[in-house]
Amino acid sequence: MTPRVLGLMSGTSADGIDAALLELPGWPPTGSGGIFPALSGGVPRGRVAEHVFTPFPPELREAVLAAMQSGADTARLTQLHWWLGEALAEAAAPLAPHADLIASHGQTVQHHPRPDLRRGWTRPATLQLGEVALIAERTGKPVVADFRPADMAAGGLGAPLVPFADWALFAEGGVRRAIHNLGGISNLTFLPGLDRDEVQAFDTGPGNCLLDEVAALAGQACDEGGRLAAAGQVHTETLAAWLAHPELQVPPPKATGREVWTLARLPRPADLGLPDLAATATAFTARTVADAYAHWVVPHGLDEVVVAGGGARNPALLAALRSALSPLPLRTFTEVGWAAQGFTDATREAAAFAFLGYARAQGWANTLPRTTGARHAVSAGKWLLPPSLPETLA
Predict the structure, then answer these.
(1) pLDDT over threshold 70, residue 387
(2) pLDDT tens digits for 157-169?
(3) Helix, strand, or coil here: 346?
(4) Is residue 275 part of a domain?
(5) Is residue 390 part of a domain?
(6) Region 106-128: what's the mean pLDDT?
(7) How far out from the chain centre does Cα 231 lie?
C-alpha cells in the first residue's frame, strides 16, 4: 500500500493553512538499491494528490502577526495556541479521511535561533502554536508536530528543516539545483547531487514579509500582482542602508524571522511614499537573495534555481530576482514539470513537512546537521497517537 501523509503548513506570511496530501509510492525503499525508491520518471519521488488552502479570518491573522511582533501576553498566547489548533483541525478535515498520518508544522510566532542580549534573548528558543491534541481528536489520525525543538536541543538552529525533504524528493544525480522558497522569509536548499552530506540550506532574509507590511499600509493583504511596487521607484539611499544590515553578513548555517525583518527595525525617510517603499522593498528582497547565492552557493557550482512560495506569484519580485540572478536560470515548479505531480509554489512546504512526518514514523533521522548547525541528526517531531498505527506506516 502507498503511504499517504497529510502535511499542514502555516508559514511566516500568516495568511492561512496549506494542507497537502502526499502520496509516497515505493517508500520505504527495499533491497540494496540505495535510500531512494526505484521510481520511473526520476524526480519528484512522490505525488501531491490533493491540496486545500484555508485562509485565516482577518482577526486570526491579526492575532498571529501581533504574536510574531511580541504583541501578545501569556493569556493571549494561550488562547491563540488553541485557536490555531482548531484552525489546523478544520483545515485538515477535508483530506484527513484519506491520510494515514498528519504532520503539522504549526504556526511559528517566535524563533530565536541564537542568544541575542540586545533583544533580551538569553538562550536559543522557538515557539510554534497550534494545539496538536485538537487535530488528533477531531480527525482520529496519528499526528506528528513540533519539529524544531529536537534540532535545537542538539545545538542546531531549528531551521531550515525542509531541506531533508527537498533532498529526499528532488535531489537528482548530475544536477546542481537550488530550490528557493519565497515565503514570508526567503530560504534556499542547494542540492548538488544525491549526497545528503553536501546539501546546503539557509535563510537568506526577507521574502514577502516586508512587501506584505507595505501592502497592509495601503489597505491590502499583499502586493497583488506586484502592482504597488511597479508603480513606484527604488529609493537608492534606503536600499543601500538596508543592504548594510549586519544579519546579511552572517555566513550559513543561519535562520531568521519576522523578529528581525520588519519595517519598524529598518531606517527609511518619513516621507517615502508607499509605491516607492514597495519598489524599494522588492528590490531589497531580490538583492538579498542574489547576494546570498553569490557569496555562498555559486562558488560551489549551480545549474538552476527553482522558485516556490507566494513570492513566485509576484511578477515584480520575480522580474527583480531574475535580473539580480542573471545569468543563472530561474524557473518555477510548473516550468520544470513538477506541477504535473502536484508540487507547486503552494504545496511544496506542506508536502515537505508531510515527508518529515513520514520519516519520523519510520524512525529515521530527518534533519541535516550541516544545514542547521546541530551536533548530530535527530528524528524530529513529537507524536500524538490514536490506539494503533496504520499498516502503511508501521
Answers:
(1) no
(2) 998 999 999 999 9
(3) coil
(4) yes
(5) no
(6) 86
(7) 29
Supply φ then ψ for residue 96, to 5 degrees.
-55, -40
Which cell is 89 given?
483541525
Closest to 16 measured CA to CA, from 82, 78, 91: 91
Backbone angles phi, psi at 17, to 5 degrees: -120, 125
User: Helices 74-92 and 58-68 meet at what angle, rounded to 10?
Assistant: 130
39 — pLDDT class (breaks 50, 70, 90): low
Q: Both ends of the chain: CA-CA distance in Å?
A: 12
User: DSSP string of 132-168?
Assistant: HHHHHHHH-S-EEE--HHHHHHTTS-S---HHHHHHH
What average pLDDT does the segment 235-245 reach? 97
- CA proximity to 15, closest of 253, 313, 247: 313
The residue segments making up the domain with residue 196 are 4-384
Number of domains in the chain: 1
Residue among 11, 21, 19 nearest 46 (CA) = 21
Q: Side chain identity at 219, as an amino acid letter?
A: G
What is the pairing mode between strands 143-145 and 101-112? parallel
Whole-number mean pLDDT of the chain? 92
What type of residue sits at position 164? F
Other C-beta atoms within 10 Å of 359: how many? 24
Cβ burial of 254 (10 Å; 0-12, 13-18, 19+) is buried
Per DSSP bridges, beta strands 177-182 and 185-191 are: antiparallel
Give the SS3 label for residue 24.
coil
Q: Is the pLDDT confidence value at 89 over 80?
A: yes
Residue 121 pLDDT class (50, 70, 90 cuts) = confident
CA distance 270 to 121: 30
- The grid cell for 2 is 502507498
> What is the Cβ-side half-sphere exposure of residue 387, based on CA atoms within 13 angstroms?
0
Answer whether residue 177 is part of any domain: yes
**Whether residue 103 has pLDDT greater than 70:** yes
> C-alpha angle with apex 348: 343 to 349, nearest 5 degrees?
160
CA-CA-CA-CA torsion sign (356, 358, 362, 363): positive
Residue 393 belongs to some domain of the structure? no
Quick one: which of 191, 206, 189 has its CA closest to 243?
206
What's the Cα-to-Cα distance from 237 to each of 159, 176, 270, rounded to whole Å? 32, 36, 13
CATH number for position 44 = 3.30.420.40
The CA distance from 76 to 105, in Å, is 20
HSE (CB half, 13 Å, CA atoms) of 149?
A: 12
